Amino acid sequence: MEQNALQKSILLYQEIDNSDGFYQCPVEAGCRSRMNVPFKCKTPELDEQFLKDAKALNMIQLKGHRLVGGIRASIYNAVTINETITLVKFMKEFRHKHSSPSAQSQIYLS
């Protein structure tokens, strides 16, 4: 279970950290949780669109804490690695759709 938790959190944090600022995690790398991955898009409007688009794909319960806002992926033990990969793929697609043309070309290089 510990290995699965580590693998899932690495997948999410890599997408956030490699997004050239499109996604931002407010938690320093050394203090990050393996179970709850908070992040924000580059604007609050994109946060709302992310949540709306995710919900349309049946990805629910992603809204961040009411005092903090943003997005929070809770990847507890019942969440599979494949489900986490699906979320990461969605994050990549969402970033591509809402990035500038120069940033879009970089997405496919990584």
UniProtKB/TrEMBL annotation:
Q: Which InterPro entries match?
A: Pser_aminoTfrase, PyrdxlP-dep_Trfase, PyrdxlP-dep_Trfase_small
Q: Name one GO biological process term.
A: L-serine biosynthetic process
Q: Can you name a GO cellular component term?
A: cytoplasm
- Please state what class of enzyme this protein is: transferase
Q: In which pathway does it act?
A: Amino-acid biosynthesis; L-serine biosynthesis; L-serine from 3-phospho-D-glycerate: step 2/3
The catalysed reaction is:
4-(phosphooxy)-L-threonine + 2-oxoglutarate = (R)-3-hydroxy-2-oxo-4-phosphooxybutanoate + L-glutamate; O-phospho-L-serine + 2-oxoglutarate = 3-phosphooxypyruvate + L-glutamate
| Superkingdom field | Eukaryota
Q: Which cofactor does it need?
A: pyridoxal 5'-phosphate
Q: What keywords would UniProt list here? A: Amino-acid biosynthesis, Aminotransferase, Pyridoxal phosphate, Serine biosynthesis, Transferase
Q: Name one GO molecular function term.
A: pyridoxal phosphate binding
Q: What is its EC number?
A: 2.6.1.52
Similarity section = Belongs to the class-V pyridoxal-phosphate-dependent aminotransferase family. SerC subfamily.
Protein name (database record): phosphoserine transaminase
Species of origin: Cacopsylla melanoneura
Phylogenetic placement of the source organism: Eukaryota, Metazoa, Ecdysozoa, Arthropoda, Hexapoda
